[in-house]
């Protein structure tokens, strides 16, 4: 682990720190926590960034009931390794013993984010919320006008899934403290979750009126506005969120999706490109940018992005289907057929892959194979105009004119629009949906 702002310790100093740490650990295992603290302190004096010494001294302080010192040591340890789930978990336990339930819960949540498979982390977080509700309720009984107790009980109810109770507590907190933007935002999130979108919109707007520097509120209101079809207002909110917090991944995703939904494809590409500069291996962003390039007819760029996405998510049927379409548009029929082969290996009845492989095979003059693919489509969908028309073309190409005429006739009979929009040289742009940007 690197030591911020300092040179590498000489070997003798590092060895000295390790030696004292080992002695401290032995004493700790014997239950002699006071002596262990002394040895850990010597280790830290030799190496102030010795994670294990800081962590274990924090543990020993906790066992001695010296909780404030324990929190300080766990905090120092987390400066060395900010993602250590056990340092977060242990600090959470110590904070709980100090009665700081909100901070303890935040640490348990952070520990879960680092290690979502540890049952103890979930157990402690769940129990703390229940204990917190009981304590905040007692505080309210003693002092009915205790605004923060209502606010924190609402927060705890929210995490326990008691959403209506949380809304009621935020409402009471706002009656006592009407200018609390965070309470409005949190109540708005709950109203949105319960489907009361008008109330949610009102709450987010109140939060913004009270404090215009809340990017999360702008983003949340943007999502609601977009859902209600108020696209320009939604884009304005996403833009404000990004102005307040430039480069936020979720804000970029949301504005990109909004741009895409209203046909502003180049602006969506701009946001996705900015996102990919932050997260180069985001397969969903690559796939979505490829989709936009495809819709704009920029097939080379689309192929590039689909290929990158496939490296990250190999074997994805949707990506192979869409890349195959773009390759065919570029006249790279053999490569397109290879993609459709991969789709059909996984999904043998995929009609888009069958049809479009047939088109590519036709372009390669592999007419018999093309006929087989169009026939497979017709077996699944006997009213498929394009499959009849393209099979007719393939029959025509090999001189089977009677069959060609029969297929052309059937296609014309089925074509309600009065004109055939596809030919044997055209792939069906099946618009396989890209994943939503969340």
Automatic annotation (TrEMBL):
InterPro entries: TPR-like_helical_dom_sf, TPR_2, TPR_rpt, Ycf3. It holds the Pfam family TPR_16. SUPFAM superfamilies: TPR-like. TPR repeats lie at residues 17-50, 51-84, 85-118, 147-180, 181-214, 215-248, 283-316, 317-350, 385-418. Keywords: Repeat, TPR repeat. The keyword Repeat applies. PROSITE patterns: TPR, TPR_REGION. PANTHER family: TETRATRICOPEPTIDE REPEAT PROTEIN 6, UDP-N-ACETYLGLUCOSAMINE--PEPTIDE N-ACETYLGLUCOSAMINYLTRANSFERASE SPINDLY-RELATED. This is Tpr domain containing protein. It comes from Tetraselmis sp. GSL018.
């Amino acid at each position: 682990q690197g030591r911020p702002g300092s040179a590498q310790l000489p070997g003798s100093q590092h060895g000295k720190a390790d030696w004292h740490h080992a002695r401290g650990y032995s004493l700790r295992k014997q239950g002699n926590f006071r002596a262990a603290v002394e040895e850990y302190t010597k280790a830290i004096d030799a190496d102030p960034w010795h994670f294990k010494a800081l962590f274990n001294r924090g543990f020993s302080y906790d066992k001695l009931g010296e909780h404030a010192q324990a929190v300080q040591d766990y905090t120092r340890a987390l400066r060395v390794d900010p993602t250590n789930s056990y340092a977060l978990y242990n600090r959470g336990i110590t904070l709980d013993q100090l009665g700081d339930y909100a901070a303890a819960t935040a640490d348990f949540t952070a520990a879960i984010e680092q290690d979502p498979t540890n049952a103890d982390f979930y157990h402690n977080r769940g129990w703390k919320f229940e204990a917190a509700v009981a304590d905040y309720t007692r505080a309210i009984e003693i002092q009915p006008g205790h605004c923060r107790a209502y606010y924190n009980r609402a927060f705890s109810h929210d995490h326990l899934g008691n959403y209506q109770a949380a809304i009621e507590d935020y409402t009471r907190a706002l009656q006592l403290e009407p200018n609390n933007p965070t309470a409005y935002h949190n109540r708005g999130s709950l109203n949105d979750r319960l489907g009361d979108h008008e109330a949610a919109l009102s709450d987010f707007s109140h939060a913004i009126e009270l404090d215009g520097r809340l990017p999360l509120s702008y983003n949340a209101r943007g999502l609601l506005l977009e859902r209600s079809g108020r696209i320009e207002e939604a884009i304005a909110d996403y833009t404000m969120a990004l102005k307040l917090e430039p480069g936020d991944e979720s804000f970029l995703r949301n504005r990109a999706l909004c741009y895409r939904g209203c046909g502003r494809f180049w602006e969506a590409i701009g946001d996705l490109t900015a996102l990919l500069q932050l997260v180069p291996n985001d397969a969903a962003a690559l796939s979505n940018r490829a989709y936009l390039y495809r819709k704009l007819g920029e097939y080379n760029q689309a192929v590039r992005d689909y290929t990158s996405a496939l490296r990250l998510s190999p074997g994805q049927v949707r990506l192979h289907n869409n890349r195959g379409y773009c390759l065919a548009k570029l006249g790279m029929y053999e490569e397109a057929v290879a993609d459709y082969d991969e789709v059909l290996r996984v999904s043998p009845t995929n009609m888009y892959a069958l049809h479009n492989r047939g088109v590519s095979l036709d372009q390669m003059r592999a007419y018999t194979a093309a006929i087989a693919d169009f026939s497979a489509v017709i077996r699944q969908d006997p009213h498929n105009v394009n499959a009849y028309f393209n099979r007719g073309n393939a029959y025509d190409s090999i001189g089977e004119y009677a069959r060609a005429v029969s297929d052309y006739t059937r296609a014309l009979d089925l074509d309600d629009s009065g004109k055939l929009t596809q030919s044997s040289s055209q792939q069906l742009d099946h618009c396989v949906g890209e994943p939503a940007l969340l």
